[in-house]
Amino acid sequence: MFKEILIDISRRLQKSQIPYIVVGGQAVLLYGDPRMTRDIDITLGVDIDQLARVTDAVNELPFSILARDFEAFVRSTRVLPIEHRESGIRIDLIFSFSPYEQLAIARAHIMDLDGTSVSYASPEDIIVHKMVAGRPRDLEDIKGILIRQTGLDQEYVRQWLSSFEDVVGRKLVEEYSTMKEALK
Fold first, then answer.
1. Are 103 and 116 in contact (CB under 8 A)?
2. Hey, what's the torsion of the CAs at 33, 172, 75, 41, to 10 degrees?
3. Per residue in 30-47, pLDDT tens?
């Protein structure tokens, strides 16, 4: 069911000319260890001023918007939570506009799902996202990516982790280096 939902959303976003990347657990399944995930996270290449365009796209699909006052919810969280009506699978549409997010979208890896091009965040960008989040599940996901992916652009990862250290108040580059060393 996840694959069908990703195909439907990708087609609709492409038709609406809304750039995007699949992030979170669905991207980890592509690059890292298989694991259970119950939702889909998609970063949109538009800011919240394009909310009407995004909701128009969503309304053409079998999805329901979960937040009652969704405009206020999106303004405070930058996330539009929707749900696939048939399966109950939740999808978080994450609005973005920062230079990092725009670059991550530009670096997307395009994968073919049954004849549909689906944009996934690069493994390096998944590592950056998950290091910033820093939850135990995120750190395990990173380890799986590091084990399975070769030729990662480590300089790119370190550069962005360094730029987010002040924002999250953690030594991300040091944490990441320690994790990589422990895997050797």
1. no
2. -10
3. 999 888 888 999 999 999
Indicate the DSSP class of residue 74: H
pLDDT tens figures, 108-119: 999 999 999 999
What is the pTM (predicted TM-score) of this model?
0.94
Query: In a 3-state reduction of DSSP, which class is residue 136?
Result: helix
Spell out the domains of the chain, with CATH numbers in brackets. Answer: 1-121 (3.30.460.40), 122-184 (no CATH)
Is the separation of the CB atoms in 55 and 80 below 8 Å? yes
Report phi then psi at 182, rounded to 5: -65, -25
Q: Which long-range contacts (CB under 8 A, 24 or more apart) does 161-170 make?
A: 161/128, 161/131, 161/132, 163/100, 164/128, 164/131, 164/132, 167/132, 168/132, 168/134, 170/134
C-alpha span between 118 and 108 (Å, rounded): 9
